[in-house]
Amino acid sequence: MFKSATLLNFTTIFRAGDPLQTDAVVHPLDKLLFQEVSKIPPFEVIRDDDGVTLSLQMKPQDRIFGLGENLGGLNKRGKAYRLYAKDESSHTPEKSSLYGSHPFCMIDGESSFGIFVDYPSEIVFDVGFSRSDLLSIRIPSHNFDLYIFQNEKSTEIVREFLRLTGAPYVPPKWAFGFQQCRYSYPDASSIRSVAENFRKNDIPCDAIYMDIDYMQDYKIFTVDQKAFPRFESFVKEMGEQGFKLVPIIDPGVKVEEGYSVYEDGKKKGFFCVDKDGKEFVGSVWPGSTHFPDFLNPDCRLWWGNLYKDLVKIGINSYWNDMNEPAIFFTPAGLKELADQLEYVAGKEDLGKDPVDFLPKLWRWWHSEDTYKQFYHKLPQRSPVCHHDVHNLYGFNMARASAEGLRRLSPNERYFMLSRSSYIGLHRYAVVWTGDNHSWWEHLLVHMRMIQSLNMAGFFYCGSDVGGFNADASSELVVRWMQLGAFTPLFRNHSTKGSRQQEPWAFDDEALSIMREVIKLRYAMIPYAYSEFLRAVQKLTPFISPLFMKFPSERTKQCEDQFMFGDSLMVAPVHAVNATGRYVHLPAGTWLHWKASGPNSGDRKVLAAGDHYVSAELSEIPLFIAENKLIVLSKPQNYVGEEQIESLTVMGLVTDCASFTVIFDDGHSFDYEKGIVSTLEIEIAKQSSSYDARVKINQNPGVPVTVKKLHFEIYDQQGKVSKFEREVNLAQ
Ligand code: GLC
Predict the structure, then answer these.
(1) Which one has a higher pLDDT value, 104 or 729?
(2) Buried b (16+ CB within 10 A) or exposed e, 241-270
């Protein structure tokens, strides 16, 4: 038996039992008029002692899109996905869980609908894997909420899902610039040298990350004074050169007498406990570690306030990692290893089957059993086993951090990047896709994932550009930078011991290509930022799969090209040694720009259909949709370095086209109160020329600095018209 009610525009909730409220949903549920029902149409429901299985017969043409951060195709059919947050550093194709858990998907078939299972522990979506014609969703519990969004249009389903779970948060404008990371730049002098290299090589960059080595013995909220003497003045020095520092903050608190975060957390009872009520111990980077109980609101408050010393010295951008939470091992696990080693000690032979022995030897490392060994103390509830709420840990860590930063600087937009996530985290933070590899296959994996993440509300996301694990070739990094330039988070990151991946770490040709790619990204910021704000306002993905904008049987098969905002389609090259690729252009004609930098690359008109387009190493296949516009500015060394005084407006106009550039201050929450200015550009084709109109809506809080527009407009035959317009503030 379930309880059911209708809400919003076309949503039905089905409630099983008495579910724990995850806070994924922002829409109030307490006033709903629930009725008892026995079915969840269109699913067949089987209930057993351990949980519920929902199954749906799929037709051959049915497709399933969504499930956020996951492997598999964009169409998720043909694989089983286990939604259970995992520190999974090798994204090989057979893996079924990654760092985030996003149980929202859309069924696209004869009748289309969306489904969101709000349940915070393991859920298995078997999408035609065990039986190719069956979608089966296994929830090992009798307590959960399930939402069905009944609509034929995927954009409407996503919009309704975001009405339910809230609009994405907007990071500060600088976060649309380029970001450089490495595990690790361990001290001030190495960060200084990275910063100098960017400026010396004339490469824009806005942020440099500080990975775990900046801390004293990996103790969170400490800074190693030897490696970073006079840290406060270092932060200032970097700021003056236009660099934000982004320190990593992990959840594990080192067990060490005299360390204030440990002592305070222990005194206040804010750490997760074992079955006997004692602080649970696991081992992560710092060694023996306690885990803050982020599901407890008082602990969240405490944790958020721990950012105060860093905020005071001017750091407002952070990186929450290892928050699945990753636990390398426990004392009991280590003991098991010791026992196993003792068992083999002195033996010369392991008997007839050493293969049985090896898994036992590794059981102690990253063991999921650990998640059943500690508990959360939630208000007005008896302790909850971590396993039962596992997917909420990272969500609540990032939320605690974000809420703290908002309290500490109420009108300053923080930057908060989280590795683990659950539905709803998009209201507080942004995500990256964790430890990928410098493999060509991962470019494609990345492209699919950012589209699926966008469907789940994570509009701002990205992967480790260049690949985190393994050594990267210069060609791979160049191609990945070209893709990264068209994902919101554009961050190059790589692991310890791997080949350096900064743009200057390769040959001169690669360096000059990467310089131009990054400059192109900076030139695109007025377009990208305006489109991002609009996407958030309209609750439609910023990175959109082709089929959501141009639904057709053909576009539903396009997984390696995507829309970047409403006007621009990107089709990155993702194969080794390739000097071109196939691309599908849906309805209308398109302006194909073989872009290698903001001021270079041929433009030519292509008709709808399938094309092979060439793309030399320096070229990115970009396509502007007919009667849509993009705007480009002069690239800067960092966002906000100079006022933007002119914009180039580019497009293929066969009838009329418009674009509205949105300006806000880029760093406060004032945009939420409507303190924005806009520049509306309209172009109408006349018989042999274009009529261009410009309208400014200026908010006194955000002066529009643009004085001139340079138009570069193409007609159906590819003939270009270049003209200029002064922007008159009185307009
Ligand atoms: C994890 C993170 C990675 C980071 C490393 C060291 O593997 O995913 O990005 O560099 O830890 O902190």
Answers:
(1) 104
(2) ebbbbbbbbbbbbbbeeebebbeebeeeeb
Looking at residue 600, its pLDDT comes to 87
Q: Dihedrals φ, ψ of 566, to 5°?
A: -85, -20
CA distance 384 to 332: 21
List the helix and strand counts (H, then E) for the chain: 13, 41
Which atom of ligand 1 lies closest to the CA of 248? 12
**Distance from residue 183's CA to the centre of ligand 1 (Å):** 7
Distance 327 CA to ligand 1 centre (A): 13
Q: Which atom of ligand 1 is nearest to the CA of 496?
A: 10
pLDDT for the residue 730: 58
Tens-place pLDDT, residues 80-116? 999 999 999 999 999 999 999 999 999 999 889 999 9
Q: Whose CA is nearest to atom 5 of ligand 1?
A: 183
Q: How far apart are CA 693 and CA 679, in angstroms?
A: 10
User: How would residue 459 be classed by pLDDT, with cut points 50, 70 and 90?
Assistant: very high
pLDDT of residue 283: 98
Output the CA 167–ligand 1 centroid distance in Å. Answer: 28
Scored b (16 or more CB within 10 A) or e, 103-112 reads bbbbbbeeeb
Q: Among 90, 211, 215, 492, which residue has the most ligand 1 atoms within 8 Å of its CB, making it the best to mutate?
A: 211
Q: Is the pLDDT confidence value at 391 over 90? A: yes
- pLDDT of 360 higher than 90: no
Dihedral sign, CA of 9, 10, 16, 21? negative
DSSP structural state of residue 361: H
Ligand 1 midpoint to CA 496 (Å): 9
Residue 702: is its pLDDT beyond 80? Answer: yes
Q: What is the mean pLDDT of residues 572-576?
A: 98
CA–CA distances in Å: residue 345 to residues 294, 341, 348, 349: 42, 6, 9, 10
Distance 367 CA to ligand 1 centre (A): 19
Per the structure block, which two tokens stand in for 615?
A: 């793309």
Q: Which amino acid is at 669?
A: F
**Residue 183 pLDDT greater than 90, yes or no:** yes
Q: Is 233 helix (H, G, I), strand (E, B) or coil?
A: helix
Say which residues have a Cβ less than 8 Å from residue 92's Cβ, sequence separation at least 6.
Answer: none
88 touches ligand 1 (CB under 6 Å): no
Q: Is 97 helix (H, G, I), strand (E, B) or coil?
A: coil
Mean pLDDT check: name the lowest of 126-140, 368-382, 448-462, 635-649.
368-382
- pLDDT for res 497: 97
Region 588-612: what's the mean pLDDT? 96
CA terminus-to-terminus distance, the chain: 63
In sequence order, which residues have a C-beta less than 8 Å from that of residue 719 and are 6 or more positions away? none
Tell whether ligand 1 has an atom less than 6 A from the beta carbon of residue 87.
Answer: no
| Closest C-alpha among 398, 400, 338, 395 to residue 363 | 338
CA–CA gap between residue 249 and residue 218 (Å, rounded): 10
Average pLDDT, the chain: 97
Residue 364 CA to residue 337 CA, distance in Å, equals 6
**Residue 212 beta carbon below 6 angstroms from any ligand 1 atom:** yes
375 alpha carbon to ligand 1 midpoint, in Å? 26
Would you tell me how many other CB atoms lie within 10 Å of the CB of residue 504?
17
Percent of the chain past pLDDT 70, that is, above it, reads 100
> In angstroms, what is the span from residue 248 Cα to ligand 1's centroid?
9
Cβ of residue 419 lying under 6 Å from some atom of ligand 1 = yes
Residue 641, SS3 per DSSP: coil
Per-residue confidence band for 357, with pLDDT thresholds at 50, 70 and 90: confident
